[in-house]
Amino acid sequence: MKRFSLLSPRAGAAFITPAGLLVGAFVIVPFFWVIYVSFTNRTLLGRTALNPEFVGLANYLELFSPHRFLDPGQFGFSLVLTIQFVLFSALLGQAALGMALAWLLQQVPKPVKAMTETVVIGAWILPEVVIGFAWFAFLDYDGGTLNGMLDAVGLPRGDWLLDYPFWVIVVFNTWRGTAFSMMLFNSAFASIPPSYFQAADVAGASSWQKFRDIGLPLIRGHVVTDLILITMWTFNVFTPFLLTKGGPGNQTEVLSIYTYRVAFRDFDFGKGAAVGVVVMLINLAFALFYLWVARKRTPGGAA
Amino acid sequence: MASVKFENVTKRFGGFTATEGLDFEVGDGEFVCLLGPSGCGKTTTLRMMAGLETPSEGKVWIGERDVTRVHPKDRGISMVFQDYALYPHMALADNIAYPLKVRGQPRPERHAEAQRVADVLQIGHLLDRMPAQISGGQQQRTSLARALVTPSDVYLFDEPLSNLDAKLRLDARGFLNHLQRDMGITAVYVTHDQAEAMALATRIAVMDRGRIVQYAPPLEIYRRPATTFVANFVGNPPMNLIEAEARIEGGQLHLQAPGLHLAPLPVPAALATRAPGRLTLGVRPEHLALAAPGAANRIEGRLFANENMGPETLVTVTRTEGEARLTARIFTDEAPRLSGAVAFGFEARHLHLFDAEGLRVPGDGE
Amino acid sequence: MTDHLRQFLGRAGFAFFTALIGAIFALPLVWFLFAPFNSRAELGLAIPEPFSLSNFRQVLENSFAIRALGNSLIQSVGGTLLVALAATLASYALSRSPLPGKRAVTYVLLLFSSVVSGSAAMVPIFLMITRAGIIDTHLSVILVFAGGLLPTAMFILRDFIDGIPRSYEESAMVAGASPVQAFFDVALPVIRPGVVVVVVWAFVNIWGSFLIPFILLRSAEKMPASVAIYSFYSEAGTPIVTLLAAYALLYSLPVVLLYLFVSWKFGFRFFGGIKA
Ligand SMILES: Nc1ncnc2c1ncn2[C@@H]1O[C@H](COP(=O)(O)OP(=O)(O)OP(=O)(O)O)[C@@H](O)[C@H]1O
Ligand SMILES: [Mg+2]
């Protein structure tokens, strides 16, 4: 024994090896491989499946080719669509709704709280394909629950998946993911000493004033954490595929679905990889920003 | 039982030196207290004995064996951790019996042994409980029981009583004292409570910034503190230290300070050959008494505080405008209603002298 | 008095409003609760009349459907075990052993794992698995999930282990235990709640996942339930709703049970990889 430690360096290295191999093989290698493939014309079948050629920046140039950049089915369209998708479903939908719910849940009777929480969390943890079907039925034109309800109150029914596909996946993703923000904010609010709010009660503050002047400022750090995390996740989410398959007419083809179609429907791996690289760069920017924020507020940071 | 020896032990954490040149021996059957302020390296020293830290330099011996690089499990020690380190998933019986389990004793035997030790510590009726279900004092005794359940060459204690209330603390202190006298264990005990060290130790090692500044029996430390640091750290309240102008005139030592009236002293041998310049004069609060005005040796000041502690009273005066304070501990019965000017008298034999570096100037006959 | 009344009305308003949001959230799930028990179920919402278990009988008789549930179980349990085992060992080492640069390692891992998302990595993962010759096997799904979930699992667990005083293991060693004994006797039991969280999290993740098995598996007898569910279509391409609904309910059951277990045991807070 050279120097005492709870676990010798050699044992430590042995302990890390299995995880190191797995992560190396399925996270780190793919990272470099996708970069490599993005510079080739690799396909699934045919001559270039076995002997892909180096094509330089051709895949990237094709992605960013200006004249059709924003047409549906093109990379630019998906990129813009994804940004809108993130903006509406994550930042506006999940975060705002999660915040409202977390605040309301602080002050409602226990049964109401328990039931609401269960439903919201249920939407979040049920398997994605199940959720996909439930929504498919919910939005069905003929007998779907939504149209049935609209009938009942005398409003016109709609063919939602055909007419408003983008808004469907926005609402869908909001519904699916609000639980995370709700729980994060919930625990953030719970960590504020009750005396802060009691002092405001004594001063006669309304719930809105307490939220604006005490609750929100005190959990600002959590809000930033939440926004970054849900942005990253929404940016990469594949679940809308289960509802719309990217259609109709590529109208809901967010980047992850676009990658899937290019690589596994058109079998153009080189181009799919190029999209992957762009997505990774965007992810990297978010991740670095997150680490930077997390480091900045390490003392007392709770997330 | 065995002795413990440190040979010039230095421990560095990165660039920071936690202990430096530790060189001392704990005799067989001794109970040594490591005493010092927070961060002075007591825990680090103890952990090097246990083998939980490896010295950067120097050697550690237990008995005749160089254990510097021996694993903790092979050192024949027991240790009580400051935070108790009771395993939360084991009932008390299993916690206490764990050292026996590791040694391969069968379950019934080790539980009988745990019961025996627990009974001595008066926690025998709690053995089915989990650590989270007992009080702090009971946890502390459980941790003690776990250390005592196996016979060990050396017992190490890291502030084991620091989390207890005053009453439990006194009880536990008495128990440890009894243990040492009765069983003659070798023990090293970390504390920053000087009263605890005084009560328990056969010798005290006073530490300051990673070094041992004095290593001696409690009374010796009390009577002849080696430095102003020790003088200031041991004693309650600590020794009064007075900066004084010193000069030798006519074969006698004259000391001058605001408020001080002191008959010339014989020159200590250590000062005979050099000009003294400034000296620090020390006198313990318990060696001060109210003096009649005009007494030969006295210190005067204005009353600052008067704290009644029951049978005794702490009287604090300021010698000058400002900081220079002085505290005396006198019997309450003898403390009249003081106000304004106060004078304390003392005997010259109770004075301590320290040189400009803060080192003790030995009196004659020391 | 009026003040009290106003306060009461305010509270009631909040409660009503919250319940309303809860109800709106529940709407898309209502059909899913009724249809499995309705032998003539369609996409339309209808109270089962009569209440019937015939859909489930049909599912249970469908050997393909049952096999798919078994496949889900194989892949989830395999992946979860691998994640839990590798993550426990690795995070213990990252927390307790004096390996140089271990803090940096954790952060780099985390960075990679959030950058290399499923959508970005599907092409290289497919190519690698193909080249390794394990395309269309359970093993491929298990390995890919293990690799992908490990960084987050390690991060959660390392945080957990860092919060456990080192004096547990130290006191065990002073008592005479070897590092391995200290790990199994003392460290592992204390870490267990953290491992349980990781296990539940990994299981729910793999069990519910669609994309990875969808890309990696070809043959029907390997499909997990998440992919197999798409085979309940008639020749004409319309979903066989009765079967689908009952199957979806069966398939959701483990997740619901785990949710109940976790909220009973720990109080459901986070097992969603908050640290990710
Ligand atoms: N693992 C470590 N890494 C870096 N510095 C350390 C480490 N352990 C201790 N130190 C430093 O060494 C010095 C001595 O620490 P030690 O724990 O021995 O003090 P102590 O005398 O026991 O104090 P206390 O009474 O507060 O317990 C402190 O300044 C401490 O910050
Ligand atoms: Mg200490």
UniProtKB/TrEMBL annotation, chain A:
Residue ranges annotated for the ABC transmembrane type-1 domain, each copy included: 80-290
TM stretches of this protein: 12-36, 75-105, 117-138, 164-185, 223-243, 273-293
Gene Ontology biological-process entries: transmembrane transport
Subcellular location: Cell membrane
Keywords associated with the record: Cell membrane, Membrane, Transmembrane, Transmembrane helix, Transport
Membrane topology: Multi-pass membrane protein
Any one annotated GO CC term: plasma membrane
Signal peptide from the UniProt entry: none
Principal subcellular localization: membrane
Family: Belongs to the binding-protein-dependent transport system permease family.
Protein name per its UniProtKB record: Carbohydrate ABC transporter membrane protein 1, CUT1 family
Source organism of the structure: Limimaricola pyoseonensis
Lineage, highest ranks first: Bacteria, Pseudomonadati, Pseudomonadota, Alphaproteobacteria, Rhodobacterales
UniProtKB/TrEMBL annotation, chain B:
UniProt name for this protein: Carbohydrate ABC transporter ATP-binding protein, CUT1 family
Organism: Limimaricola pyoseonensis
Domain annotation ABC transporter: ranges: 4-234
This protein's UniProt keywords: ATP-binding, Cell membrane, Membrane, Nucleotide-binding, Translocase, Transport
One function term, GO molecular function aspect: ATP binding
UniProt similarity note: Belongs to the ABC transporter superfamily.
Lineage, uppermost ranks: Bacteria, Pseudomonadati, Pseudomonadota, Alphaproteobacteria, Rhodobacterales
Gene Ontology annotations of biological process type: carbohydrate transport
Coiled coil: none
InterPro entries from the UniProt entry: AAA+_ATPase (IPR003593), ABC_transporter-like_ATP-bd (IPR003439), ABC_transpr_MalK-like (IPR015855), ABC_transpr_MalK/UgpC-like (IPR047641), Mo/tungstate-bd_C_term_dom (IPR008995), NA-bd_OB-fold (IPR012340), P-loop_NTPase (IPR027417), Transp-assoc_OB_typ2 (IPR013611)
TrEMBL record, chain C:
Signal peptide location: none
Subcellular location: Cell membrane
Keywords, ordered alphabetically: Cell membrane, Membrane, Transmembrane, Transmembrane helix, Transport
Protein name: Carbohydrate ABC transporter membrane protein 2, CUT1 family
Alphabetical GO biological process terms: transmembrane transport
Organism name: Limimaricola pyoseonensis
GO CC annotation terms, alphabetical: plasma membrane
Family of this protein: Belongs to the binding-protein-dependent transport system permease family.
Membrane topology: Multi-pass membrane protein
Chain ranges of the ABC transmembrane type-1 domain: 69-262
Listed transmembrane segments: 12-34, 73-94, 106-127, 139-157, 195-216, 236-262
InterPro entries xrefs: BP-dep_ABC_trans_perm, MetI-like, MetI-like_sf
